[in-house]
Amino acid sequence: MGQLEGKVALVVGGARGLGAAQAELFSQEGATVVVADVLRERGEATAGGLKNAEFRFLDVTSEQNWNEVVDDIVARHGRLDVMIENAGIYQGRKLVNIALHEWHQVVAVNQTGPFLGLQTAGRAMIRCGNGGSIVVLGSVAGLWGPWGGTSYSASKWAIRGMCRVAAKEFGPHGIRVNSIHPGYIQTELLDSSTKHLDRDEIIKAIPLGRIGDACEVAALALFLASDQSSYCTGQEFVIDGGLHG
Ligand code: NAD
């Protein structure tokens, strides 16, 4: 029997990268999986290759989109057990060069998105009365101050605060809230955000001596989504090969 048998999981930002790996693992573990993303074709292809999975368009910056998607899941499946929020964008400009609209864009996706996700999924889980697990993807950039990543880093620090407060508010309803903070994991986002950096130098700084794989983050996400982590809430889980030990 799979670890998520009978559960309904919403994987946001699930069209590619870390979210796609989670969608695949959650489906293998018996969940009904809703892949949500702004990338329609990619998301449909990801969901189409999985058992009991479907795609829904969701722009995490839109309150209306969140309400439509979550209401639709509860109406059709009768429950929402897991929501994992991966949607994120990177911006590596120096602080003095960030235009205000660029700052707002990163905050809208990386901070307002998880806020709306916590709120909408939390409300739905409370209504359903089955408890649940919410996981938000932060970053090691939310644990320190990486050079040239003010807006990204600030938005990832914010996730920790929101998740800790949500864990307190949702705990009495049996809903757990945790965040995952990856280091360097091989995805398209990593390729674009490190294109001006020397890969060998990055790898030298990682005690385990390699870039992580999306399936390794998916394994941690499965632990947090499943009942295996039934007494974990309000916590930050770092997965970075020892980078910030
Ligand atoms: P990715 O770019 O491969 O995937 C991100 C997904 O989010 C994409 O499918 C994208 O379409 C979706 N997305 C972006 N904006 C959206 C929006 N407004 N609404 C809905 N979906 C949207 O990136 P990834 O590497 O898989 O990263 C996933 C998460 O993990 C991000 O929050 C990222 O900041 C975080 N993270 C990644 C790494 C890494 O090394 N890959 C490290 C630290 C943190």
Describe the structure.
The relative contact order is 0.15. With 245 residues, the protein is of the alpha/beta class. It has helices at 17-28, 40-48, 63-77, 100-128, 150-170, 188-193, 199-204, 214-225; strands spanning 8-12, 32-37, 53-57, 82-85, 132-137, 175-182, 236-239. Helix 1 (17-28) crosses helix 8 and helix 3 packs parallel to helix 4. Nicotinamide-adenine-dinucleotide binds next to helix 1 and helix 6.
Helicity, as a percent range: 40-55%
Rg, please?
17 Å
- How many distinct helices? 8
Instruction: Find the structural class using helix and strand composition.
Output: alpha/beta
Q: What's the count of strands?
A: 7
Order of strands across the main sheet: 3-2-1-4-5-6-7
Please outline the major beta sheet: 7 strands, parallel
Gross geometry: globular
Estimate the strand proportion.
15-25%
Order of helices and strands: EHEHEHEHEHEHHHE
Mean pLDDT across residues: 97
Query: Low-confidence runs (pLDDT<50, min 5 residues)?
Result: none
Oligomer state equals single chain
Enumerate the distinct ligands: nicotinamide-adenine-dinucleotide
Topology:
Elements: E1 8-12, H1 17-28, E2 32-37, H2 40-48, E3 53-57, H3 63-77, E4 82-85, H4 100-128, E5 132-137, H5 150-170, E6 175-182, H6 188-193, H7 199-204, H8 214-225, E7 236-239
Parallel strand pairs: 1-2, 1-4, 2-3, 4-5, 5-6, 6-7
Helix pairs in contact: 1-8, 3-4, 4-5
The structure holds nicotinamide-adenine-dinucleotide (NAD).
